[in-house]
Design a protein that fits this description.
With about 120 residues, the protein is mostly helical. Helices cover about 75% and strands about 0% of the residues. It has one domain (about 1-115). The chain contains five helices and no strands. α1 packs antiparallel against α2 (about 45-65).
């Protein structure tokens, strides 16, 4: 799939990537804002929580957005979908083949994310 990505999918990805990155950064900043404004915690506890969140989100940003190349478009789209950064409607801007591969990859990513998001992890 990576070597024969249609030009239309590559162009759609480049546009959508910027939109999804902006959405994710807005979400992260909102999360940090909620942590920072939690008056029930000490300043140090808020700092630690914000630091941990940013580290975790930085890993997610790396998987979804770093080093965009045709060879990783499908994997990055699947990661973006699993993070709820792009909609089904936006995914429809890609060819049916790319859509089906993204959907197939997305399921294991969602399961792994659900496992990692469990309390106590």
């Amino acid at each position: 799939m990576s070597t024969d990505l249609p030009e239309s999918d590559w162009k759609a990805f480049r546009k959508l990537r910027e939109v999804a990155l902006e959405r994710f950064c807005e979400r992260i900043l909102a999360e940090v804002g909620r942590i920072a404004s939690d008056a029930k915690r000490t300043s140090h506890a808020r700092y630690l929580a914000a630091y941990e969140l940013i580290q975790e989100r930085d890993h997610q940003i790396a998987r979804a957005f770093n080093n965009p190349r045709r060879s990783v478009v499908v994997a990055q789209l699947a990661t973006m979908m699993s993070l709820d950064l792009i909609s089904q409607e936006e995914l429809h801007s890609f060819t049916p083949r790319t859509q089906s591969v993204v959907e197939a990859l997305r399921q294991p990513i969602r399961r792994a994310r659900a496992t990692n998001d469990r309390p106590g992890r």
